[in-house]
Amino acid sequence: MLVVAHTGRPEAVRSAQLVIERLSKAGITVRVLDEEAPELHCAGVQALPGTAAAAQDAELVIVLGGDGTILRAADLVRMSGTPLLGVNLGHVGFLAEAERDDLTSTVERVVERRYHVEERMTIDVTVHRNGTVAATTWALNEATVEKAERERMLEVVVEVDGRPLSHWGCDGVVCATPTGSTAYAFSAGGPVVWPQVEAMLVVPISAHALFARPLVVSPRSAVAVEVLPDTPRAVLWCDGRRTVGLPPGARVEVRRGAVPVRLARLHQTPFTDRLVTKFGLPVTGWRGRALPEEGGGGRRQRR
Question: Number of folded domains in the chain?
């Protein structure tokens, strides 16, 4: 198994050391990234370069940190298909499956292979400049076209399935997956989309337009954002990690990704419960479904 940690956080280092120790005692070969190995100070582990080869043939990648660390690890595992299991040591941590207080039981379930794997939709992103492909990349959460100059608005035209939709003067446009609906798209006013829903979101950021609502389009759709020629330069961000400069006239095309990311899950917790927990949503007064009275034909309600 590959262990990836946010080594800039002492807590993540201690947690990674604990995970490595217990996996090793269970007879599991442990890998770490060579740039993280000096901080982890763990003997008997394999230190590999931070490339896709580090996750190749591994059963699982255990990530200790926040969503940013998980997104970093997703770069390593996407092509190998190795599942990710995130332990949240950050703030909200929507991509993580376990919390820091559950670390011991998490390792036990991993050793006993008591987890299941689900696939999450990704998006493939292509940048065109002067009619030619200038860059290709991908995202698990979102691809965002943003203005690069604070003092001026970005002028874009958004296209869906080969047809122009609207011209926006804005700070940017977020194209997100359902997984990313609780990340940047959520902060920009987009809807929360359950992970089982296959769709793409298009969310304008601070748009000056009468029609500037978040959109939910088919996963089979192709979305394009064209940076108008007379607008300031822009920048493309994918998952807040990969960036491409966009001169005036550039075109960004977003489609459903050909390769999903696989996430390991320890529990069958409904997404609704995750929302309630992560955001501390008030549910006081909920009674739930009416249940039959014991020993009778009447009905009662949960309290």
Answer: 2
